[in-house]
Amino acid sequence: MALVNDIKCARCDRKYSGVRSRCPYCGARRIGRGKYTEDSDNAKGKMLISILILSVFTVAAGVMLFTTPVEDTGPPEDDSSISNPEDGIDSQPGLWEDPTPSPTIEIVETAPPLTVETVQIWVPRSHKAEDLSFWLGRGDTSFQLAAVLDPPGLEIPLSWSSTNEEVFEIETVVGGVQLNFVGAGTATLVLTAGDKEARCIIRVNP
After folding, report:
1. Is the pLDDT of residue 120 over 70?
2. Which element (helix H / strand E) includes 51?
3. Residue 180 in contact with residue 169, Cβ under 8 Å?
4. CA-wise closest residue to 198 among 133, 126, 146, 156
């Protein structure tokens, strides 16, 4: 259905488009609306139908445009090449390695401490270790003793004591102790090393 009607030339009686002012066949000027044109009511109806169809297409295009769903691509994936603003360190591996080596824990096995197995009081060979006798009348005024520990070389505090200091007193010297006789009588010399103990009877005669 054409928007512009065809008209018929008054000279050559041929039809041509109504947009032309002259006949393309004989060149005659069109007079008025031309010969055999359709009535105005039919032309207006065609125009209204054309506008209506155009409006329908426009509305349909607008509805399709605004109702088409937009594809959700989701949040952008983390890019490992982008630095982390919180820690200020580039997240790419190998770029910011800690030069400080990890501390290593070294387990050192320590031997259990040595304990005293036995303790003895050492005296000169000419004397009996468990019972020593001295005579003040012969000029005996002092006597040196030492301690013997097992295992040997064990460093442990030693304790020497006298059960009666009116008979003899104890003086510490290099390598052991010295007994200083005070008066006649009998007393016991006690040596303590750890949980071990040794005793020796000291008899001082007038």
Report:
1. yes
2. helix 40-67
3. yes
4. 146
In the chain, what are the domain boundaries?
A: 6-66, 118-205
User: pLDDT confidence of 105, banded at 50, 70, 90?
Assistant: confident
Confidence (pTM): 0.45
CA 177 to the chain's CA centroid: 62
Q: Of how many residues is the chain composed?
A: 206
Give the 3-state secondary structure of residue 146: strand
Residue 55, both tokens: 């409006």
Q: Does a cis peptide bond (omega within 30 degrees of 0) precede residue 151?
A: yes
CATH number of 118-205: 2.60.40.1080
Mean pLDDT of the chain: 78
User: Tokens in use for 106?
Assistant: 């070294």
Give dist(CA 196, CA 129) in Å, integer.
17
What DSSP string describes 72-86?
A: ---SPPPPTTSPPTT
Cα–Cα distance, 188 to 56 (Å, whole number): 132
Say whether pLDDT at 92 is over 60.
no
What whole-number percentage of the chain has pLDDT above 70?
A: 71
